[in-house]
Amino acid sequence: MSKFTIHTIESAPQASKTMLEQSLKSFGMVPNLHGVLAESPNTFEAYQTLHNLFESSSFNAEELTVVWQTINVEHGCTYCVPAHTGIAHMMKVDGALTEALRNRTAMPTAKLQALHDTTLLMVRNRGLLSDAEMEAFFTAGYGQQQLLEIVLGLSQKVISNYVNHVAHTLVDKPFQQFAWEK
């Protein structure tokens, strides 16, 4: 159980209240992660900003899901994997892709496999990619922009995954059906 406060709009620091109100409008609820992040308005704002920037990147819904879930699974985030499974369903991402990511099996296309592999290498090697690894990514049809956008997605996920680890954030009720363990 979390020892961190999961803030409501009423209990949150003043600087977080508007962001929580926006969460309520966007999701019809205040996700527990957002309630935890509200304790630090700057961290909450950074997370929200990175999320919005990554979501508006050049990646489509499948590619966003590949980057998010590759990182979530590698980091062992038992909050974010179920949440992003539900989000992927809402984004109409094929369930087979979501299950492959959750279970660490092959991606349905060579291009998505290259995205998954490169994202995983970025996480495991802390951004240190060999020339051959970058070339494989570029040969699959991605460019420098997308490589930098993986870094953007990773930045967002470091905040959420690490906060969930230290806070032991409880999975929100709508996503409990997608429970996951490493």
Regions with little confidence, pLDDT below 50 for 5+ residues:
none
Number of helices: 9
What are the secondary-structure elements, in order, as H or E?
HHHHHHHHH
> How would you name the CATH homologous superfamily?
AhpD-like
Class per helix and strand makeup: mainly alpha
Tell me what you see in this structure:
The structure is a single chain. The chain has helices at residues 14-27, 32-37, 41-55, 61-75, 80-90, 95-103, 110-124, 131-139, 144-167. The protein is an all-alpha fold and 182 residues long. It has one domain: AhpD-like (Up-down Bundle). α4 packs parallel to α6 (95-103) and α5 (80-90) packs antiparallel against α6 (95-103). The chain is globular.
What's the quick description here?
With 182 residues, the protein is mainly alpha-helical. Helix content is 65%, strand content 0%. Helix 4 packs parallel to helix 6, helix 4 runs parallel beside helix 7 and helix 7 packs across helix 9.
Tag the structure with descriptive keywords.
single chain; 182 residues; mainly alpha; AhpD-like; 65% helix
How are the secondary structure elements laid out?
Layout: H1 14-27, H2 32-37, H3 41-55, H4 61-75, H5 80-90, H6 95-103, H7 110-124, H8 131-139, H9 144-167
